[in-house]
Amino acid sequence: MEFFPSRTTFLRVGPLTIQWYAILILTGAIVAYFFSKKNLKQYRNIDVNGFFDDMFIYVLWGGVIGARLWYCLFDSNFNYLEDPLQIIKIWDGGVAFHGCFAGGLLVALLFCKKRNVSFVKFADAVVPTVLFAQAMGRWGNFINQECYGQTVNESYYDGILSFLKSGMYIHGEYREPMFFYESCLCLLGFILINFVLRKFQNKRGDLAWAYLMWYGVVRFFIEARRTDSLLMNISGLKTAQVTSVIYVIIGILGFVGVFDKLFKKKKPTLLFDLDGTLIDTEEPIQMSYRELYRRYDDEKNFTDEIATEVLGPGLMEMFAKLFPNEDPNKLFKEYKEINNSLLPDYLRPMPNAMETLEILKQDGYHIGAVTTRTHDSAEQCLKLIGMDKYMEDICGIDDVKKSKPDPEGYGKIIDKNKWNKSDIVVIGDSIADINGGKNYGCFTVAYIFNKNKTAKVVECGPDRQISDIKELLDILKEDINFTYNGK
């Protein structure tokens, strides 16, 4: 084993050599991986560890294959049709970043489609971090004495660039360090897009479009000064310059929203709470708790404050708080018996709920419910008022291990039905509904029907607040991305 046997080699073990270029590229890719993973976590409804870790290796291979094929396609020095085996001889040199980017992006697109993940959201989180990997990779060019420009005087390297001087003496002359300028500009772009533009992002895709514009402009002018470009010219421009122009055009069109107009957006998935949102169960719920107070406490202790508090949370949660010394399973059984006996007489739809659901169904929205009721109880309530025909699926409290505000229920019903998980609207009337939706990365709408609950629900920070369920129709007409952070 021999470390640093030559300028370009990091390690030699027998016939095996590991080049500095590979080390720097891999280091940049790993750093970009961690930045990407951090960015993806903001979307919340993406299983980062399961999804991105699986994808990373495939994308790396896609990038390597794409880089080699691109080089072979545009390299004017060799005829690979005469000797196709040369294509796989990557160890002899010859890769191109534009091909790497295209190959990796194609694999990512296919992977996102298979896993029901928004490719545009993925691109926003991952693509700008590629700039860091590129900045690192260009130092591999320095070690290999590549990516240089015109001949310059020795004095060019006096001062701040003096540390590059020895490495830029190539073929008996000093050369412009184009690798260095591109590396610095890539690093600057990485900082501006990831840490500045991200804070002011207007719509999904802006960060990926910004990458294309930034790198396209940078690479175009870097290539204009390079004298060691390996690929063929197209109409007087180098292949990399032509590709860079295409990058910039695509980036501009995407940034101004042209693609949004050309391609029809998927309708968001609608996940409703039931009690207090679609069905008015306030009276039977309060009457059921009042009866429990009569049996196990004192009916006088069932205050107006408690009557408001019991609307929304799960039964077991409230039993533990209100009747800490009683058997919760016994309370649950009695509560259900009381409540079921009251539902036929007191259950009714919330105002305008039936009309709103009818319009949403006709417009083609996927409609589901995530509730703290048991699955059977939820189905019973919906059938009693004729609302079951609008509800495609239900996730009850007995379908999950953790109830709202844990996001498990939202993820379960979305994955089960393979609904659009990029845009999800959660509509509910309680703190648990709003926080549960936010925890899964959803756009949340607080339906404030009970004025006593307004302050606490609004404090949760829902994206919208309505006092009539039909107002949801106007919100769905807005040209926005229905996610927690609006991106």
Task: Give your account of this protein's structure.
The chain is α/β, with parallel strands linked by helices and about 475 residues long. It has 19 helices and 16 strands. The protein has helices spanning about 20-40, 50-75, 95-115, 120-125, 130-145, 180-195, 205-225, 240-255, 260, 280-295, 305-310, 315-320, 330-345, 355-360, 375-385, 410-415, 430-440, 455-460, 470-475; strands spanning about 1-5, 10-15, 15-20, 150, 170, 175, 235, 235-240, 270, 280, 350, 365-370, 395, 425-430, 445, 465. The chain has a 6-stranded parallel sheet with strand order 13-12-9-14-15-16, sandwiched between helices. Strands 1-2-3 form a 3-stranded antiparallel sheet. Helix 1 (about 20-40) packs antiparallel against helix 5 (about 130-145), helix 2 (about 50-75) packs antiparallel against helix 3 and helix 6 packs antiparallel against helix 7 (about 205-225). It is elongated. It starts with a strand and ends in an 11-residue tail after the last helix.
